[in-house]
Amino acid sequence: GTLVSIEGNLLLGGGNRVVSVELSGVHVEDIVSYNNSHVIVRAGENSSLNTNSEDVRIVSDTGATVYLDNAFRYVEEGKISIVSPARGQVGTYVAIRGINLFGNGTGVDRVLLHGSPATIMNATSTLIRLRAPSLNNL
Question: Cα separation of 87 and 84, whole Å?
């Protein structure tokens, strides 16, 4: 899931710890860290993009709820349809085709092949062209 950073004041609502967080009505996958002014969570999977809520809700160990309306909206996740070629050597040019490959962002930061960063030649939200890296761990 996507890491989400929530910033504000008195996010623990007078409590000592965060016990649950919801993003757009969906419980988060993991509460990564928290303090009174900053909460980091890993968004849970949303099976339906048609949620009526876009609220962020934080519940502390006292039962206090801190929320912000219209603060988070799930977007359609990207999907890879084909990677071509499926195998190759160091320096092989690879094409990744799919939809929403930027994950609703404006670009791609990095692509890993077998855990190693590939050289991105060019990228659109439907096609990423890259060059296979040297694999030091093989």
Answer: 8
Q: Please work out, in degrees rounded to the nearest 5, the angle formed at the alpha carbon of residue 13 by the alpha carbons of 11 and 15.
A: 110
Own/partner long-range contacts of 73-77 (Cβ < 8 Å, ≥24 apart): 73/24, 74/23, 74/24, 74/26, 74/43, 74/46, 74/49, 75/49, 75/103, 75/104, 76/49, 76/100, 76/104, 77/103
What are the pLDDT digits (tens) for 44-89? 887 666 556 689 999 999 999 999 999 998 888 889 999 999 999 9
* DSSP classification of residue 95: E
Q: Contact, 21 vs 58, CB < 8 A?
A: yes
Structure token digits, residue 50: 């048609």
* pLDDT, tens digit, 9 for 90 and up, residues 100-124: 999 888 999 999 998 899 999 999 9
